[in-house]
């Protein structure tokens, strides 16, 4: 990016969020892959981050943290309900993830979505100087590119979609489909995780707006809008370095001791979201135990789940169902002092997470649908001795790149059982060969590569 331009990131959440109230109020890291990826990028380039603090009511004034100027955008309590819980999480989230839950369409939510998008556009316009580069993120802010262009046509505007972008069969359900496409077409460059998502977008734009052109370059209202696939990634070096830290290595050894030093450790780490396939995974693990293909004395599953979108009914249900399944497996297979499945519902520090990645012989990343899935890449980056096996869903964007993982269809119970078996029994030399290839893939295509490719294409 040319030196004189500065970077303005616009995302629903700031990288830190305000939690608790009164004397116990504090800032903590925001959840999710978007923040994990953008945090190192902005800390490096410097710039401004426009986003929501996670609290309704009074907003903090702009402030600086870690080389980044934070500009909080206010969201009221009714807007949290309609814009965030409603339109973002009950309409777009399920619709864009293969309608794995039925999306709901509600015109009051849509009204709030338009209003909040306008507010983000105005905040970005205020933060930007002439010819600055503005990078807008994700499904919560799809109208912002065009709204911002109308306010400040001189800006370079990029948009990146972190989640999948659905095919016409699903997208066409959306009553506001043309508005959304027009909103996105306000950008100079629209980026997606995969080629398939990018093609879905371009085809839909030609079908439901006046745009013409090819998959990678559309003509719309006298401008050229480019689109491309830019698979997001992680700060490989930071994970690799942390995984070599003697204290972290000691912590991982202590985890293994406490789990039972002779046992194989199988790990999963996800937000507690219905797209992540946690129930399907537990069913496959239970099947292995029930059929005595594995024994709880020799193997343990650890499921770490970050609380997310708590008040929404689908999330309350998935939590209850996961907790029920864990209880049931342990009821049948645990023995005194030795559970078959450990379940931790909490947010961990980066160091603790790395210690867990280091402790795991097998990593199960089996979402039903995922834009990318950074956990898979983080595990690979932490396996500094090239041991460990990654089992990865075909329906995660990461499967396009991490082809040497054990790929699996999470809805195929027998396929899941077979994949876990393969991973547990893999010959160490074969595992090391695969891990080494996976590591060089993630090392080369790290988050810096991702950000530079996107920003390079946006500003060229
Ligand atoms: P999503 O964006 O849908 O949450 P990703 O796998 O792309 O999924 O990103 C999840 C991010 O959240 C990763 O960077 C991961 O390290 C982090 N994360 C997942 N589980 C935890 C946890 N229990 N504690 C802290 N961070 C977590
Ligand atoms: O794309 C990943 C993502 O959906 C982000 O957009 C989102 O911020 C994050 O996961 C976590 O979800 P939420 O912001 O709803 O807590």
Which helices and strands, and how do they pair?
Blueprint (H helix, E strand, L loop, with lengths): L6 E7 L2 E4 L6 E4 L3 H13 L1 E6 L10 E3 L2 E5 L4 H20 L10 H21 L5 E5 L6 H8 L4 E5 L7 H4 L5 H8 L4 E4 L2 H14 L3 E2 L3 E4 L2 E7 L6 H9 L1 H14 L4 E8 L6 H13 L8 E8 L6 H21 L7 E5 L4 H10 L2 E4 L8 H9 L6 E5 L12 E3 L4 H13 L2 H17 L2 H13 L1
Parallel strand pairs: 1-4, 1-7, 4-6, 7-8, 8-9, 9-12, 13-14, 13-16, 14-15, 16-17, 17-18
Antiparallel strand pairs: 2-3, 5-6, 10-11, 11-12
Helix pairs in contact: 2-3, 3-4, 6-7, 8-13, 9-12, 10-11, 10-14
The structure holds adenosine-5'-diphosphate and 6-O-phosphono-beta-D-fructofuranose.
Model description:
With 460 residues, this protein is α/β, with parallel strands linked by helices. The chain has two domains: 7-232 and 448-459, 3-Layer(aba) Sandwich (Rossmann fold); 237-444, Rossmann fold. The protein contains 16 helices and 18 strands. The strands form three sheets. It has a ten-stranded mixed sheet, sandwiched between helices. Strands 15-14-13-16-17-18 form a six-stranded parallel sheet, sandwiched between helices. A two-stranded antiparallel ribbon has the order 2-3. Helix 8 (236-244) crosses helix 13 (374-382) and helix 10 (278-290) packs parallel to helix 11 (313-333). The longest helix is centred in the N-terminal third of the chain and has 21 residues, at 107-127. It is globular and about 65 Å long. Bound molecules: adenosine-5'-diphosphate and 6-O-phosphono-beta-D-fructofuranose. 6-O-phosphono-beta-D-fructofuranose binds at residues 12-13, 31-34, 138, 162-163, 308-309, 371.
């Amino acid at each position: 990016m040319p030196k004189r331009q500065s970077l303005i990131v616009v995302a629903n959440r700031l990288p830190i969020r305000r939690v608790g109230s009164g004397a116990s109020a504090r800032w903590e890291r925001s959840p999710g892959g978007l923040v994990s990826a953008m945090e190192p990028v902005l800390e490096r380039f410097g710039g401004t981050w426009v986003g929501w603090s996670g609290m309704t009511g009074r907003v903090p004034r702009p402030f600086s943290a870690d080389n980044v100027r934070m500009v909080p955008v206010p969201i009221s309590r009714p807007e949290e309900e309609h814009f965030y819980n409603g339109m973002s999480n009950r309409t777009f989230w399920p619709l864009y993830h293969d309608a794995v839950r039925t999306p709901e369409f509600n015109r009051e939510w849509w009204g709030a979505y338009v209003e909040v998008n306008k507010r983000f556009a105005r905040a970005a316009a205020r933060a930007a100087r002439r010819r600055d580069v503005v990078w807008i993120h994700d499904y919560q802010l799809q109208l912002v590119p065009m709204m911002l262009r109308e306010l400040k046509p001189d800006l370079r505007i990029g948009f990146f979609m972190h989640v999948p972008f659905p095919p016409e069969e699903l997208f066409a359900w959306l009553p506001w489909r043309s508005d959304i496409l027009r909103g996105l077409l306000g950008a100079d460059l629209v980026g997606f995780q995969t080629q398939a998502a990018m093609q879905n977008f371009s085809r839909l734009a030609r079908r439901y707006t006046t745009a013409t052109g090819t998959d990678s370059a559309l003509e719309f209202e006298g401008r050229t809008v480019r689109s491309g696939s830019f698979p997001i990634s992680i700060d490989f070096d930071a994970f690799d370095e942390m995984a070599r830290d003697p204290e972290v290595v000691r912590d991982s050894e202590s985890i293994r001791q406490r789990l039972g030093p002779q046992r194989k450790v199988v790990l999963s780490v996800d937000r507690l979201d219905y797209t992540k396939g946690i129930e399907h995974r537990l069913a496959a693990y239970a099947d292995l135990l029930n059929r005595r293909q594995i024994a709880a004395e020799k193997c343990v599953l650890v499921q770490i789940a970050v609380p997310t979108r708590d008040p929404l009914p689908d999330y309350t249900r998935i939590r209850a169902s996961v907790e029920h399944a864990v209880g049931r497996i342990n009821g049948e297979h645990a023995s005194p002092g030795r559970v078959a499945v450990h379940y931790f519902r909490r947010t961990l520090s980066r160091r603790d997470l790395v210690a867990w990645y280091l402790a795991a012989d097998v990593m199960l990343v089996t979402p039903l649908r995922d834009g990318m899935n950074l956990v898979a890449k983080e595990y690979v980056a932490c396996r500094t001795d090239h041991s460990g096996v990654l089992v990865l869903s075909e329906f995660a964007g990461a499967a396009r790149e991490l082809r040497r993982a054990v790929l699996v269809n999470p809805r195929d119970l027998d396929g899941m059982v077979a994949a876990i078996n393969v991973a547990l029994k893999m010959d160490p030399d074969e595992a090391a060969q695969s891990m080494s290839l996976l590591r060089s893939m993630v090392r080369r295509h790290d988050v810096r590569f991702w950000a530079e490719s996107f920003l390079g294409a946006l500003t060229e």
